[in-house]
Design a protein that fits this description.
mainly beta; globular; single chain; 90 residues; 0% helix; five-stranded antiparallel β-sheet
Length: 90
């Protein structure tokens, strides 16, 4: 599949790549879950000539997940597609 992006949809197992910008020393593993629903595409066009829209997906986690900020436990979350990676098949 080199050069092609992963196809996301309901039922796909994913790894959520956490944004560690604010928490670079966190030792939490990136959570694994399954996409259970499509979210809305969101974007912003304020003060910009183009509108960038990103797809969101609702991911249900295999195990309750605590966020890098200590929030949680979360059973599911609405995640931007850019933070998702298809999990390798076992």
């Amino acid at each position: 599949m080199s050069g092609q992006s992963a196809v996301f949809g309901v039922g796909v197992q994913v790894i959520v790549r956490l944004d560690r910008t604010r928490f670079p020393d966190s030792l939490l593993d990136d959570p694994i879950g399954v996409i259970v629903a499509a979210g809305e595409s969101e974007g912003s066009g304020l003060y910009a000539p183009t509108v960038v829209r990103e797809k969101f997906w609702v991911v249900r986690f295999e195990e309750p997940f605590f966020g890098l900020d200590g929030s949680g436990p979360h059973d599911s979350a609405r995640i931007p597609q850019s933070f998702l990676e298809a999990a390798p098949e076992a």
